[in-house]
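Sample pair:
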Amino acid sequence: IFRNPAHLEPFLLACEADARGRVNFEDSSYPSAPWLTNLVDKLAAITTREFIEAGLTGIALGEAIDKRRLDIITAYKIATDTNA
């Protein structure tokens, strides 16, 4: 999704079709699509610039980006948890 954001919409459409294709769920809402779209927007805002300016390269650069993504995912899940 980060390399080709155009893949997100067809993926979400397939997920929604799968969810609505189940008996008694044909007319149900699919809140996961906007949830994931918002999350991907937050993740896509991460740029390598700040990490490179901090002197990170190679594996350390990739690990720092992965950690930032996980931090954003965790915070987003907590902020949007409706079961809490």
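The CA atoms of residues 19 and 25 lie 7 Å apart.
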